[in-house]
Write a structure and sequence with these properties.
MmgE_PrpD; lyase activity; 60s Ribosomal Protein L30, Chain: A; two-stranded antiparallel ribbon; MmgE/PrpD family protein; alpha+beta; MmgE/PrpD_sf_1; MmgE_PrpD_C; 21 helices
Length: about 450
Amino acid sequence: MDIAQIYAKYAKDLNFDDLPQEVVDHSKKLILDIMGNDIGGYEWMDSGPSIVNGIREINRGNSGSTVIATGESMAPEWASFANASMAHSLDYDNHHAKGVIHAGGSVVNCALAAAEENNSNGKELITSVVIGYEIACRLAMALGPHSSHEMGFHPTGTCSTFSGSAIIGRSRKMSEEEIVNAMGLNGSQAAGSMQYVVNGAWNKRTHPGINTHSSFIAATLAQSGFIGAAEVFEGKQGFLQGYALRPIPENATKTLGHSYETLENAIKPFPLCRYNHQTLDLVLDYQREYNVETSKISSILIHMPTYGVQLCGSPIELKRNPKSPVDAQFSGCFAAALALTQEKADMQTFTNILNTGMSSEFKRLLSITDIQQADDLDAIHPEFWPGRVTLTIDGEDVELYGKHMRGERERPMSIEEVQEKFRDLSPNHDESKRKEVFEVINNLENATIDDLLSPLRK
């Protein structure tokens, strides 16, 4: 069987009862995390309302699935577009380190929309979410670490196009052949240009939404008899060859059905680029313990893996002078100054700094921060996402090093911490409604999709 056939069979055959309890429990946290990000991307970012307003015009009153942030109903393909776009807007959505992909915005929102469309129960929703993560994350690993980024493609915007059609195929009880044909068409839909980095454009935020929408189109056409490309992944002109410099095709199916990449998806505790999290973790812990007077700090040196430097440390003058929320999210200098001056880095704190303006001391800390690549960090990345921060305090160097970040499998966030993150992201939602959602999530395998979403619907 080729890769698409293996994926289609996996999507059809996986049963909820096959899932280890650890996978079920983590899947619930991933679902809640993405639902919070759906709301947060609308509440906290200027792009959120423009996304919903634009899609509302295109949708033209069709219904079927819920827009999590507003409670309105749209056609499944458009509701998932809106939700998934907003889920990635804050760069706060869960992240798979080995694949360097934010799969959750697409996977969870595609599964939610498909579940509503087909009136699924909680067990089916969880199973669909696992199917989506397992396929999307393995495809990202098959592209080879960073080798798709280097070609100008964003795996978050490409890989989940295929997993989405598997999710929809499962929910609609499509045949394996139909799912394979849908994935064949997905090969002509995967996009995700990295050109957005030039001006901090909003394109990146829509990548998960574009691919969930594409997944619904492909699945629907396949159900109508559409024939998609054969060997869409491993073919000479297929996805892996066209979107990666150094593809590793065996990673696409390696251990599928025997281990769970779902468990490797880390929930982000901070609303900044994941490459900044090690800096935040290290400096926050240090500052909370020692409460250093920041005026005593004369230099800050941050070491990151190469790709982290490219995203969050170069050009250094831009990173020392962020002009927008996106600039700040992708600035290691901003992360260090935030941790040192605020001793916390939640959404409210992050936004307040941007809205009220950076203090003179904050700006001074930005100016004395440098970010450099380190060979020892590259040697273990992306299997691990290590980092090192050296603070020069009163002329003496204090070196901080971390290998595992909070939110990863080795340092997981509790369900209570994910609930608190949900609260932070949904400032305008009623607490009683939040608690209803939390109660359903905690017992999702014995609930329905209506139980989960009814507190958030209009």
